[in-house]
Amino acid sequence: MTKNAILSASVDIEIPFHDCDPMQVVWHGNYARYFEVARCALLRKIDFDYLDMQDSGYVWPIVDMRTKFVGSALFAQMITVDAHLVEYESRLKIAYLISCKLTGKKLTKAHTVQVAVDLQTKEMQFVSPDILTIKLRAKNYVA
Fold it and tell me: What's the CA gap between 104 and 128, in Å, rounded?
């Protein structure tokens, strides 16, 4: 678990052939998809997946994504993707760690930042909508 994580989720993914380059190394652009799988697992823990967000009147586009590649994920390798919610009051900041499931070796560290956008006005919100805090409180992740 990441220090200061409010909520965490973990998923295991087997690297498919179509995610790899000719050297059987995962193409760098595919890591965003792995983050997405873990992010959805994290958001489902508070019943606030993307359809729930949309139903609440907001969408949460990613406005920043940073990735540091420490090692390479390879074809057929089992990886574990950990997602940790580290900020929520004005934005969703989620930290990620991808590691080899077999050895535990760290492969990739990253984070994404999402902000709420009102579906009707298309205006970015500078404070997260109350529904997010309500969802986190309902599952006892925040006071």
Answer: 35
Enter the pTM of the model. 0.95
Please, are residues 81 and 111 in contact by the beta-carbon 8 Å criterion?
Answer: no
Q: What is the mean pLDDT of each run of 10 residues along the chain (143 residues)?
A: 86 98 96 98 96 96 97 98 97 98 98 97 96 95 89
Q: Which residues pair with 25 in a beta bridge?
A: 74
CA distance 79 to 60: 26
For 54, the token pair is 């949309």
Pick from 40, 12, 17, 22: which is nearest to 100 by CA?
12
Does an H or E element contain 63, and which?
strand 62-69
The CATH code belonging to domain 7-136 is 3.10.129.10
Structure tokens that stand for 66 in this block: 């940073």
Task: Answer for the pair 80, 99: CB distance below 8 angstroms, yes or no.
Answer: yes
Ranges of each domain in the chain: 7-136
Mention every residue, 6+ apart, whose C-beta is less than 8 A from residue 69: 28, 31, 107, 108
